[in-house]
Amino acid sequence: MKNENAITVSELTKTFGTFTAVNAISFEVKKGEIFGFLGANGAGKTTAMKMLIGILKPSSGQATVAGFDVHTESEAIKRNIGYMSQKFALYDDLTVRENITFFGGIYGLSRKRIQEKSKQLIEDLGLGAVGKSLVGSLPLGWKQKLAFSVAMLHDPQIVFLDEPTGGVDPITRRQFWEMIYKAAHAGTTLFVTTHYMDEAEYCNRVSIMVNGKIEALDTPKNLKQHFEAATMNDVFLKLARG
After folding, report:
1. In the prediction, which pLDDT does 103 show?
2. DSSP for residue 32
3. Which residue, among 47, 156, 40, 151, has the nearest Cα to 100 in the 3D structure?
4. Where are the chain's structural domains?
5. Cα 238–24–66 angle (5° rounding)?
6. Which keywords does UniProt give here (predicted)?
7. Is pLDDT at 236 greater than 90 in this prediction?
8. pLDDT (tens digit, 9 = 90+) per residue, 44-90?
9. d(Cα 148, Cα 173) in Å, to the nearest integer?
10. pLDDT digit string (tens) for 134-193?
11. What are residue 36's DSSP bridge partners?
């Protein structure tokens, strides 16, 4: 990446017919930052993310991800990012090891590198006893942590996580965020969408989308001070009420 920003967005817009899902949003994400992209369901978070990861063409505006243009270099973006979708991204009918091998191949890793990464990943997650088990048989929390680790398999510059803790218990959510901290400490940029407002407290900075627009962007501490709020949920409620 050529500058200190992992992601730069200017007036990015997506329309579907007469409906504007994402309305001229602008922001920057620094290298190594945990950037929270918050908003209620339907606020436009996932649509914005899909434009940034190169699978949805913007209607207008500009953006670069890992130094590559979203309009003209979407394939280069895909090679330099990791992505964990809102719905569980791995294959239930493959084993843990088979999933790692499959995605390692997609990411272009050598057979030797896949073997090394597979061993390390399984050890780190404590999945040695279930390495040959079908992923579909694992508890949701384990599935989510495995999906995140697989998204990191090729050492991407930026990892996009779309509602990564949806449906998991509070303990697993905390464990998941510990994995995010570890990745950020190693220099990876994390872009996280969530509708759990308490998770904003774990981010370096957060933006809050309301009806397709970014209505606030700052550190959690500064946002709470600005809106005279005790929690990020209070901040969001004030914004949502206008």
Report:
1. 93
2. T
3. 151
4. 5-240
5. 105
6. ATP-binding, Nucleotide-binding
7. no
8. 998 999 999 999 999 999 999 999 999 999 999 998 999 998 776 78
9. 12
10. 999 998 888 888 999 999 999 999 999 988 888 888 888 888 899 999 999 999 999 998
11. 192, 206
Give, rounded to a whole angstrom, the gap between the first and last alpha carbons of the chain: 38
Phi then psi dihedrals of residue 189, to 5 deg: -90, 130
Output the pLDDT for position 1. 45
**Which uninterrupted H or E stretch holds 233?**
helix 232-240
If you search the block for the tokens 């979203």, which residue do you land on?
A: 70
Predicted confidence band of residue 40 (pLDDT cuts 50, 70, 90): confident
Contact 203, 192 (CB under 8 A): yes
Q: Which long-range contacts (CB under 8 A, 24 or more apart) does 20-26 make?
A: 20/212, 21/47, 21/212, 22/47, 22/48, 22/51, 22/212, 23/211, 23/212, 23/213, 24/61, 24/213, 25/61, 25/209, 25/212, 25/213, 25/214, 26/214
Type of residue numbered 69:
D
Q: Which CATH fold would you assign to the domain 5-240?
A: Rossmann fold (3.40.50)
